Amino acid sequence: MTEMLETLLQACIAFLKIGAFSFGGGYAVVAFIQREVVEGHGWITPENFVNVVAIAEMTPGPIAVNSSTFVGYNLAGILGGIVCSASTLAIPFALALIVAIYFSKFKDNIYLKNALSGIRPAVIGLIAASCLSVGKISFSGWESVIFFLVALVMVWKAKINPILALITCGVLGAVLYGWVFPMLGI
Questions:
Q1: What percent of the chain lies above the pLDDT cut of 90?
Q2: Spatial CA neighbour of 151 closest among 166, 134, 130, 141
Q3: Which residue in 36, 32, 14 sits closest to 88, CA to CA?
Q4: What is the dihedral angle through the alpha carbons of 52, 156, 132, 40, rounded to the nearest 10 degrees?
Q5: What is the DSSP letter of 61?
């Protein structure tokens, strides 16, 4: 019991950090979450992390919160899911509340504008780092490149909803890995 509470406290601190420093949200935070839960603490494997990101993307809500709920639940059941989710949300909630109260007073402040001008491109770098980090795990063979290209073309060029791209690749994966490849002996 004590070991579980210690792990839950570590998870709480980890997700407080993730929530506090996940500027840009979404994919910008994926590399940070991976560093904490996979590399830092070993709570989940790299392969499971990719699955967590995929599930977090498909479910409603922010990726960071969905990921923290999954990791927390795996560590300590329902209580772990609730604690990790709340930890992820605590600092951003407080910051958003403060910004909502004071932003109108400082929206024309040159220092704030300059800071935001520096943060925006950094968020693109964080997203790129997340893509590379997840890509190293996800690209396991030529077939994974095909799934990547199918999703890329569907979302970027054909402007199809990302959820439809995920469903399409999921169905293709089930057919290829579950039926075609075994039939061909691959």
A1: 53
A2: 166
A3: 14
A4: -30
A5: S
